[in-house]
Here is the input.
Amino acid sequence: MVSRIVVGAHYGLGSWLAQRITAVIMAVYSVILVVVFMTGRPISYGVWKELFTQGWMRVATLLFAISLGWHAWVGVRDIVMDYARHDGLRLGLQVITIVIIAAYVGWTVQILWR
Amino acid sequence: MSSAAAKKPRPKYLSLAALLFEIRLPAPAWVSGLHRLSGALLFFPFAAWLLYLLDTSLASEQGFVHVRSYLAMPIAKLGLLVFVWAYAHHFCAGIRFLFLDLNKGIDLPQARMTSFIVFAASIALTIFFAWRIW
Here is the structure.
């Protein structure tokens, strides 16, 4: 017999830590992007396209998107757990959240590697 | 129980209306609540909107021009401002929470002061952005 303990020790701690680490990754990316905008040349299509063609920018943006997905999963799940009291509704909202996150990450990949 | 406390109707239920109009929440509670609200808004609809803008602006030169003229519309600028406020508040409040996790600034006077700093910084960033795009 296999007894699974889904909600055990450290379960919440892992999510909590992941939310903090992804937050720092996104904060660093945000600051870099703001600096690029503030100090860079006026943004034409060529400049814009070139920025997102560079390898480091593609990887950094993908890293941001994945961080956002993970971060948002922890955050939105907290919100859903707090307010959606009905089990079916809560499960439905959590599934919708996962689908939206997967769609965002997939869309980001599609935009970056076209 | 003192007689003053006994006169108040009890129990007191924390409805949204009570939180907004009857009870004065402390500043850190507003930071926390707005952090949640801004996070929800950033997840949806703003992330989808920004992905759409990024997609269109990178797809072709016509797309880039389209996004530029689209973002020149007042309603789109208003949307951008709400986004910038939500992002700035979520960012500043998030950094405050990271320090709280490290037990920095947890006593009441400091917690109140950093709450007001978060409000001021995010509103200042939003006003600066508004000045830049108008």
Q: What stands out?
A: Helices of chain A lie at 11-39, 45-51, 55-83, 87-112. The mean pLDDT of chain A is 91. The domain at 11-112 of chain A is CATH 1.20.1300.10 (3 helical TM bundles of succinate and fumarate reductases). Chain A touches chain B through 21 residues (CB under 8 Å).
